[in-house]
Amino acid sequence: MKRLSLLLTVFCFALLADSVASAAAPLNIIPEALHIVRAEFGLFNASGFVPSNRVPLVEGQTYGWRIVVKTNKAKVRWREEFTLPVAPVTWGDAEVKGMSSVSENRRVSVMEREETPVDGVMVNSWAVAAGDPVGHHVMRVLIDNRYEYIFQFDVQSAPQHTKKVLQ
Prior knowledge:
The protein has 167 residues and is of the alpha+beta class. The chain is built from two helices and ten strands. The strands form two sheets. Strands 3-10-9-5-7-6 form a six-stranded mixed beta sheet, with no helix packed on it. A four-stranded antiparallel beta sheet has the order 2-1-4-8, with no helix packed on it. The longest helix has 23 residues, at 2-24. The chain starts with a helix and ends in a 10-residue tail after the last strand.
């Protein structure tokens, strides 16, 4: 009887030790990682993206930010707060198609999205519309609730091509 009791005790300790070791063993879970490679603001045109902090007040000119990420996450969350110097005539399609909110004074729009980066790139763009204000604009972009980028740029009247009058 003593031998059976000793064997049973040893067996129970072995079983307990094995379950404790299993619980302490690291799981093969890879934590979701997100690293920002580059964040920039600029113009979009036929030849691609051109970094710039000046946007010409030309109807249809697209501009915005692009952020290059390295991640194993399926989707990345971003939030953009876009502040204008004065309220625009209209926020255009954005008011209908996806702006989360517009401030009471109509100078600030907020957009929030969750998207899959395409080849590691996330982009948000706007197009100059009739009635858009000139002056200093600010876009505050928050990526994954951790990384903040503030893009400051000026929307400027397109230069007038003047002819020199010869006398």
